[in-house]
Fold this sequence. Notes:
With 126 residues, the chain is of the alpha+beta class. The chain has one domain (11-125). 37% of the residues lie in helices and 16% in strands. The chain is built from five helices and five strands; from the N terminus they run βαββααααββ. Strands 1, 2, 3, 4 and 5 form a five-stranded mixed β-sheet that branches. A hairpin with a 2-residue loop joins strand 4 (112-114) and strand 5. It starts with 10 loop residues before the first strand and ends in a 6-residue tail after the last strand. The relative contact order is 0.25. The model has no long low-confidence stretch (mean pLDDT 89).
Amino acid sequence: MLDDQTSVVNFLWGLEADNDPGSDAYWRQSYTYPQQLSQWAFAAAPHHPIVTQYMENLRGYTKDNETAALNSDPLKRTGPAAVTLATKSLLEDRVGFRWASLTGVKDGGRPKLVDDVLILPITAFQ
């Protein structure tokens, strides 16, 4: 989904997983979502709402599940699934974005600009 009305990119992500949304292949590959973001390569404007959402999710998880949080895998709390959830939630709420439309399986892996967030295809870091 390219939004030609947005001229400023305030957040940049790259996909680390891009599977057919209608398939269960993603969980066989140990991903949480068919289209999952990579947390190790991103750029963000200061105080972007995605960062705020991510931090609120993390605080809520640790506050509500303190014992579970201490015994769980930090990657699940802070890694790709966590940043994907924050971004997915924000874009769905803010602009009604359908997360499954991020897939590059059928469009050859084109970048997607959604609101002020640019999401690069899985091939961007090869």
